[in-house]
Specification:
There is one protein chain. The protein contains no helices and 9 strands. By secondary structure, it is mainly beta. The strands form 2 sheets. A 5-stranded antiparallel sheet has the order 1-2-9-4-7, with no helix packed on it. Strands 3-8-5-6 form a 4-stranded antiparallel sheet, with no helix packed on it. A hairpin with a 2-residue loop joins strand 5 (68-72) and strand 6 (75-79). The protein starts with 25 loop residues before the first strand and ends with a strand.
Length: 109
């Protein structure tokens, strides 16, 4: 069983209270997970890259803070606070953080 920060008892949280940047690489925190969806807060240290991959689920990326680039289906998308990006299932994507970067990733069926 995965421990999550949101539940029937804890309905709200402030994302920025949970943004913690690692010295290098990626730190991810599952906020909520059930059989239909998963909400994960990702925090990437500046200079971190995630190589191209795909997901079997639809995804929504909501940038909380920082800057970087998401390459989705071969096109570069600037990541900046407030940017919201839909990624269909099986779409190839990669990511690089030009500065400390945090985003909420929502996976759904």
């Amino acid at each position: 069983m995965t421990t999550t920060l949101l539940s029937a008892d804890t309905l709200t949280l402030h994302l920025r209270d949970h943004v913690l940047y690692p010295e290098a690489g990626v730190l991810s925190t599952v906020l909520f997970k059930d059989t239909h969806c998963q909400f994960t807060l990702f925090c990437l240290a500046a200079g971190t890259e995630i190589s191209e991959h795909t997901s079997t689920r639809n995804a929504l990326v909501q940038v909380v803070e920082g800057r970087g680039t998401l390459t989705l289906n071969g096109s570069d998308i600037a990541l900046e606070p407030g940017r919201l990006i839909f990624m269909p299932a099986h779409a190839p994507h990669a990511l690089s953080a030009s500065e400390n970067l945090s985003f909420l990733l929502t996976l759904s069926n």
